[in-house]
Amino acid sequence: MRAVEQREVSPGARTAALRWDIIELLFFAYRDFVGDADHVLEEFGFGRAHHRVIHFVHRYPGLKVADLLDVLRITKQSLGRVLKQLLDEGYIVQKAGAKDRRERLLFATAKGEALVAKLAGLQTDRINGAMGELDPAGADTVRQFLRGMIDRDDPDKVLQAIFGTGSATAKE
Known about the structure:
Layout: H1 3-6, H2 11-17, H3 20-44, H4 48-59, E1 63-64, H5 65-72, H6 76-88, E2 92-96, E3 104-108, H7 110-131, H8 136-149, H9 157-162
Antiparallel strand pairs: 1-3, 2-3
Helix pairs in contact: 3-7, 4-6, 4-7
């Protein structure tokens, strides 16, 4: 059970303690953060699901399809449609595992890497603009806050790498 679901608070007390300021800031920050990439993705006929898939495949070369499902927390059917399009259009390639030929390992192609770089560049510009006035301690606080927002009850391999507890390594 997730930590948020475990907290039993009366409705009246809960309403007084709600963090409308942070909730709304997160809504608008997310809207604009993904919106920059959305405009580029539209040119390719792609959406946010395509962005997430190509991002993690690029960052974790050789990521198994099964692990990607865990990372994205989506159904096989949802991933299948998006993955097929990325494969068919040459943004990702799929290879059989060396030890287990049934494994499907995913890799970004040069075309996929170029798209990821473009999208990450837009998002990095937005992050740099927002964090421009922060000192290193402030930047660490932002990272700590974002890590604290992630549900770690069911860690996947990518989250284990992010939190420094797993064997997966990210591509720079």
